[in-house]
Design brief:
Layout: E1 4-9, H1 13-24, E2 29-32, H2 39-43, H3 46-63, H4 79-93, H5 99-104, E3 108-110, E4 114-118, E5 121-124, E6 127-136, E7 140-142, E8 170-174, H6 178-189, E9 193-198, H7 209-221, E10 225-228, E11 232-237, E12 249-253, E13 258-261, E14 263-266, E15 270-272, E16 286-287, E17 290-293, E18 305-307, E19 312-314, H8 323-338, E20 352-355, E21 360-365, H9 368-373, E22 380-385, H10 390-395, E23 401-406, E24 412-419, H11 423-434, H12 439-443, H13 453-461, H14 465-468, H15 471-480
Parallel strand pairs: 1-2, 1-6, 2-3, 6-18, 8-9, 8-14, 9-10, 17-19
Antiparallel strand pairs: 4-5, 5-6, 7-15, 11-12, 12-13, 16-17, 20-21, 21-24, 22-23, 23-24
Cofactor: FAD
Domain Pyridine nucleotide-disulphide oxidoreductase dimerisation: 352-459
Domain FAD/NAD(P)-binding: 4-329
């Protein structure tokens, strides 16, 4: 008889959810974690990055207060205080993810590395554990590029960035994706020099160009410098007698230019944590993108195995490295693994993603380019500028745009938002796309005034305006006015 009904490898967002639900349903569960409980999101990602951004936005608000008639001295950045805020946010949330809490649920928490020794057995902490089902939720880590000179200079990833005891003098960021852009704005607003190096033609390459350009403009105003469309070919240790004596690393670009900085942050993407699991011994098929699963997240080669979160690579769908995807996966896993419900499948049609800059850039569903690539040709593009929103005008935050991608019959395919707190509006569009609600549901929604959400409603209403003001409608109203 197996030792456990369910063994979960990884105590991040997905693993914790699966372990809690499985134990709550009366199953015998083991949870294996070699690092910190809570995984990347709590300790190195979502929580500390948003806490740092909150401090940075507070500094920016103080500098900008004069436009409201509030005169303040320039903010003084207490780096130790900023770090205390970041660590305090982690500490406040940590008990929810703690080993003690899960042991209280009846989960056996094993703080060790794990690897497969057979298709139905794992070794962890010097013990061999047999199982009926295993859930691999080991997550992902920052990609370390094969870059000449990297082994001779200090560098940072999201796992070490928040440990800096002193602020970077000049932070060089390799990568213009969400992590790179968020940390660029945070550090620039906290008084650091920041340069972002992006090999692709533009930053935020997955996002709609109209929206990405607005975010870029905001970061430029904050003092962030960009080098786009140029590759970093090597890095060097700064010579002690250099004029930039405070710098510690030099980035050498393919055009021959050299940029000296004090710190180098690697933010070029993430890779699944496959090393050390010995998936071959478990009979588990994988690719460099993760563990190959069906749309139900079950391994295609070992029916005892499921994968969730960043490490899952569903066939025909691909991986997604978001904490909210890990939570979505956990829900799918409960239905497919525990309740054996058929036709339980992953779908990213309504998946939101947010770059938490200021303003925030949110995308739900397809961008215009993605919709065209998917074969949608009869598209309507609806736009409403944030500058036309009364709440935005009242608060002096008028930068941004709502852009809706609408297919045949008024079906909403995607929504792109560049606005303050755009992520808070994402759920509205996720519900519409996920439930296939007609655009009229949003256009006819009664929203409190004044709110930024009204910009979304006004964009949706643009779909119906041409019909409302058509010659036929005008003639009809002309006839109806004769009625008593």
């Amino acid at each position: 008889m197996p030792d456990f009904d369910v063994v979960v490898i990884g105590a991040g967002a997905a693993g914790l959810s699966v372990a809690a639900i499985s134990a709550g349903l009366g199953l015998k569960v083991a949870l294996i974690e070699r690092g910190r409980m809570g995984g990347d999101c709590l300790n190195y990602g979502c929580v500390p990055s948003k806490a740092l951004l909150a401090a940075a936005h507070a500094a920016a608000a103080a500098r900008d207060a004069a436009r409201f008639g509030i005169r303040l001295p320039p903010p003084e950045i207490d780096w130790a205080g900023v770090r205390a805020h970041v660590k305090g946010a982690i500490a406040r949330i940590a008990p929810n993810d703690s080993a003690a809490r899960f042991r209280g649920m009846g989960v056996e928490v094993i703080e060790a590395s794990a690897h497969f020794v057979a298709p139905d057995a794992i070794e962890a902490g010097g013990r061999t554990l047999t199982f009926r089902r295993v859930v691999i939720a080991a997550g992902s880590s920052a990609i370390i590029p094969d870059l000449p000179g990297l082994d001779g200079v200090p560098w940072l990833t999201n796992e070490t960035l928040f440990d800096l005891e002193e602020p970077p003098g000049h932070l060089l960021i390799l990568g213009g994706g969400p992590i790179g852009l968020e940390m660029a704005q945070a550090h620039a607003r906290l008084g650091c020099l920041v340069t972002v190096i992006e090999a692709g033609p533009r930053i935020a390459s997955r996002e709609d160009p109209e929206l990405a350009e607005g975010l870029r403009a905001s970061l430029v105003r904050d003092g962030v410098e960009f080098r786009e469309g140029v590759k970093l070919v090597r890095v060097e240790q700064l010579e002690p007698d250099s004029l930039a004596a405070q710098a510690g690393v030099v980035a050498v670009l393919e055009d021959g230019s050299r940029i000296a900085g004090t710190h180098l942050l690697l933010a070029v993407g993430r890779a699944p944590r496959l090393a050390g699991l010995d998936l071959t011994a478990g009979g588990i098929e994988s690719t460099p993108r993760g563990i190959v699963t069906g749309a139900d997240l079950r391994s295609v080669s070992n029916k005892r195995v499921w994968a969730v979160g960043d490490i899952a690579d569903p066939r025909g769908i691909g991986p997604r490295a978001f904490t909210h995807v890990a939570s979505q996966h956990a829900g799918i896993l409960v239905r497919s693994m525990l309740f054996r419900l058929p036709f339980t499948k992953v779908s990213y049609a309504a998946l939101p993603r947010v770059t938490y800059g200021d303003p925030e850039l949110a995308q739900i569903g397809l961008t215009e380019a993605e919709a065209r690539e998917a074969g949608h040709t009869d598209l309507a593009l609806l736009r409403w500028p944030v500058a036309e929103n009364d709440r935005a005008v009242a608060e002096g935050r008028t930068e941004g745009l709502v852009k809706l991608v609408v297919g045949k019959g008024g079906r909403l395919l995607g929504a792109g938002l560049l606005a303050p707190h755009a992520g808070e509006m994402a759920g509205m569009f996720g519900l519409m796309i996920g439930r296939k609600l007609p655009l009229s549901a949003l256009a006819g929604m009664v929203l409190p005034y004044p709110t930024l959400s009204e910009a979304a409603k006004r964009a949706a209403s643009e779909f119906y305006t041409p019909k409302l003001l058509s010659p036929f409608t005008k003639r009809l109203v002309g006839l109806l006015k004769r009625l008593p």
